[in-house]
Amino acid sequence: MALASAVQAQLALGGGIAPPGVAFARLLLGTLAKWLVVIAVWWGAIAIIGKAPIAAVAGLLAALLVHPLVVLLGTKVKRER
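The structure assignment produced for this chain is given below.
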């Protein structure tokens, strides 16, 4: 999920300032790329490496649940002047 989120952020936010339509298209493209990376890694874990499908699904679900919690409950950075 971390790799997929990095891909999404690079595609969605890496192009600089753009008109709203272009920014929205980049956001959609980034989200699509994120899920393609997630599915590819998940499929690779099952087909190529030979991990158990139930364990792979459980790991994916755990990552899907933990990632938003980390973002919401993450520590705040204190800035000193």
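Interim note for the steering committee: The helical segments are 2-13, 20-48, 53-73. The chain has three helices and no strands.
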